[in-house]
């Protein structure tokens, strides 16, 4: 059994919890998730089964989309609703729609984020949340992330109240902390803030509409129709540039041969999916670091066809 399972991650479970439960349901060990989702976050979590675990990192590296709620008026230790309140400041003046839209626009594009203390980022070989649980705050390395778009999903013209909550949709690069983005939105508006709710609506090409719940998976396993919902490995690689090859070249690819980069891919950066004329991806290649004009295999995915 191999392929990509679009799982709907429920609230209260870690990504590892989901893998553990699926190993029991499917009675197989070779299962991997494609990036950590916080326990409070629901939504799209692509799961790789069997040989498809080889391509998990390419789903992780692809863009993500989320819908969530920002609450303005108080911040928390974890930057989401599960943490303890750190700072309060009642919203003492109306906030207009134009103000919020201006802030969202200012946070679109390349931005710098500092990972929250309650996160899985490692500093000196130890995850930040381990320091945080001991009450220790350490210096965290900032990172550049890309916000492709942010939309305000609230049609109010004016927002009033001691605390204000509004919904938004964001498309972003890997490594983006939406919790931190919510805090940044509040800061730009002049108030402490946190992310009060979040659902991932898209990961790579997989959407909420594609996802199955654990109950639906168990039902399909019982009815022996589970494999019908699995996506091929190619579903994890559809966002990568493609190089189609003949059967003759395919034999070389299976043995890890270095190839000449085709003209249409000379200016690309990052991984390239090398596929048969039938659209079956055989290997992932990248530009050769020492031999201009050539590319070398990073991973050979199939050598049995």
UniProtKB/TrEMBL annotation:
Catalysed reactions, as listed in the record: uridine(55) in tRNA = pseudouridine(55) in tRNA
Chain ranges of the Pseudouridine synthase II N-terminal domain: 23-178
EC id: 5.4.99.25
Record keywords: Isomerase, tRNA processing
UniProt enzyme class: isomerase
Isomerase recorded as keyword: yes
Record-annotated tRNA pseudouridylate synthase B C-terminal domain positions: 179-237
InterPro entries with a match to the protein in the record: PsdUridine_synth_cat_dom_sf, PsdUridine_synth_N, tRNA_psdUridine_synth_TruB, TruB_C
GO biological processes: mRNA pseudouridine synthesis; tRNA pseudouridine synthesis
GO terms, molecular function: RNA binding; tRNA pseudouridine(55) synthase activity
Gene3D superfamilies: Pseudouridine synthase
Active site: 38 (nucleophile)
Source taxon at top rank: Bacteria
Function: Responsible for synthesis of pseudouridine from uracil-55 in the psi GC loop of transfer RNAs.
PANTHER family from the UniProt entry: PSEUDOURIDYLATE SYNTHASE TRUB1, TRNA-PSEUDOURIDINE SYNTHASE
Family that this chain belongs to: Belongs to the pseudouridine synthase TruB family. Type 1 subfamily.
This protein's name: tRNA pseudouridine synthase B
């Amino acid at each position: 059994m191999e392929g990509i399972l679009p799982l709907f991650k429920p609230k209260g479970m870690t990504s590892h919890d989901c893998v553990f439960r699926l190993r029991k349901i499917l009675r197989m060990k070779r299962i991997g998730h494609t990036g950590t989702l916080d326990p409070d976050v629901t939504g799209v979590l692509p799961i790789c089964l069997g040989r498809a675990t080889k391509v998990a990192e390419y789903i992780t590296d692809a863009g993500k989309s989320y819908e969530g709620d920002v609450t303005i008026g108080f911040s928390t230790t974890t930057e989401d609703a599960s943490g303890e309140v750190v700072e309060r400041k009642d919203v003492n003046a109306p906030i207009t729609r134009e103000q919020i839209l201006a802030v969202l626009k200012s946070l679109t594009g390349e931005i710098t984020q500092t990972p929250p203390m309650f996160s899985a980022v490692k500093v000196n070989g130890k995850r930040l949340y381990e320091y945080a649980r001991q009450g220790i705050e350490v210096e965290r390395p900032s990172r550049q992330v890309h916000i492709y778009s942010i939309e305000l999903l609230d049609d109010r013209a004016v927002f009033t109240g001691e605390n204000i909550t509004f919904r938004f949709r964001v498309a972003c690069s890997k490594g983006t902390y939406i919790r931190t983005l919510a805090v940044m939105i509040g800061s730009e508006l002049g108030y402490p803030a946190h992310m009060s709710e979040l659902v991932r609506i898209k990961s790579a090409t997989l959407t909420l509409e594609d996802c199955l719940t654990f109950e639906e998976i168990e039902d399909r396993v019982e009815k022996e129709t589970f494999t019908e919902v699995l996506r091929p490995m190619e579903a994890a690689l559809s966002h990568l540039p493609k190089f189609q090859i003949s059967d003759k070249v395919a034999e070389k690819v299976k043995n890890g041969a270095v190839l000449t980069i085709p003209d249409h891919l000379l200016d690309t950066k990052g991984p390239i999916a090398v596929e048969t004329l039938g659209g079956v991806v055989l290997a992932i290649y990248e530009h050769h670091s020492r031999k201009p004009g050539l590319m070398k295999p990073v991973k050979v995915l199939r050598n049995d066809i």
